[in-house]
């Protein structure tokens, strides 16, 4: 397998030891967007939160400071990332439900969560895959629930088109027709808003944009 395109779970398993250092020191504006994302999660006792692509819990580090009673269901393809997250919060074990798998396959349930979020995980998928997932998120939220997405974005349609063309080219060259592989395919902020609205969210807004990352908020009603 070419190192240019690693299977997603394997990619993050191999990088677990340096992941937090990389995200906090090498990703532009990360200290700001993790803090701002946490600030948007309601500070309500016993809140039920779905965290998609939770990794080692960088966003949860900030959220738990503000809402120590929150209940979190975290889903991630990397078993080693989840092990690291679990070891960080042994004292919060009763508040964490960690699932090793693809959030495209896991059943979220109906109306189960007060809020859902994802941080730096959605920029690996096609428009069609995103809409399919966003519909699942929409239905798993309570009537007044909302979804927060903090993610890497393309700064122009030209850039977005290039990223998707490269993904298609590499997949074709390697004969990959199924599965999730680590290659960046970020969308523009405008397209991201359209995708969330097409999944059913009634109010979608760009909450804040940094240099290469944006925070979106999508309300169910």
Number of domains: 1
Q: Characterize the overall form.
A: globular
- CATH architecture identity: 3-Layer(aba) Sandwich
Largest sheet: 7 strands, mixed
Helical segment tally?
A: 8
According to CATH, the fold-level topology is Rossmann fold
Can you walk me through this structure?
The chain is of the alpha/beta class and 221 residues long. It has one domain (8-215): Vaccinia Virus protein VP39 (Rossmann fold, 3-Layer(aba) Sandwich). It is 41% helix and 22% strand. The protein has helices spanning 8-14, 16-26, 30-40, 58-66, 79-88, 127-140, 157-174, 189-198, and strands at residues 48-52, 71-76, 96-100, 113-119, 141-152, 203-209, 213-219. The chain has a seven-stranded mixed sheet, with helices on both faces. β6 (203-209) and β7 form a beta hairpin. α3 (30-40) packs across α4. The mean pLDDT is 95. Keywords: Methyltransferase, Transferase.
Give the arrangement of secondary structure elements.
Layout: H1 8-14, H2 16-26, H3 30-40, E1 48-52, H4 58-66, E2 71-76, H5 79-88, E3 96-100, E4 113-119, H6 127-140, E5 141-152, H7 157-174, H8 189-198, E6 203-209, E7 213-219
Parallel strand pairs: 1-2, 1-4, 2-3, 4-5
Antiparallel strand pairs: 5-7, 6-7
Helix pairs in contact: 3-4
GO molecular function: methyltransferase activity
Protein name: Class I SAM-dependent methyltransferase
Pfam families: Methyltransf_25
């Amino acid at each position: 397998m070419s190192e240019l395109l690693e299977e997603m779970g394997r990619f993050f398993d191999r990088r677990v030891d340096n992941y937090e250092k990389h995200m906090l020191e090498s990703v532009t504006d990360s200290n700001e967007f993790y803090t701002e994302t946490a600030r948007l999660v309601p500070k309500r006792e016993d809140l039920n939160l779905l965290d998609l692509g939770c990794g080692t819990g960088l966003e949860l580090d900030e959220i738990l400071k503000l809402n120590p009673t929150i209940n979190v269901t975290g889903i991630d393809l990397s078993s080693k990332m989840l092990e690291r997250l679990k070891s960080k919060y042994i004292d919060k074990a009763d508040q964490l439900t960690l699932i090793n798998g693809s959030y495209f396959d896991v059943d979220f349930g109906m109306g189960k969560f007060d809020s859902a979020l994802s941080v730096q995980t959605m920029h690996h998928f096609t428009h069609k895959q995103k809409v399919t997932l966003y519909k699942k998120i929409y239905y798993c939220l309570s009537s007044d629930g909302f979804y927060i997405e903090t993610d890497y974005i393309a700064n122009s349609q030209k850039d977005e088109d290039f990223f998707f063309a490269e993904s298609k080219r590499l997949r074709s060259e390697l004969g990959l027709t199924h599965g999730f592989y680590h290659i960046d395919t970020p969308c523009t902020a405008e397209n991201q808003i359209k995708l969330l609205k097409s999944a059913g969210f009634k109010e979608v807004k760009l909450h804040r944009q940094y240099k290469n990352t944006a925070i979106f908020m999508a309300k169910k009603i």
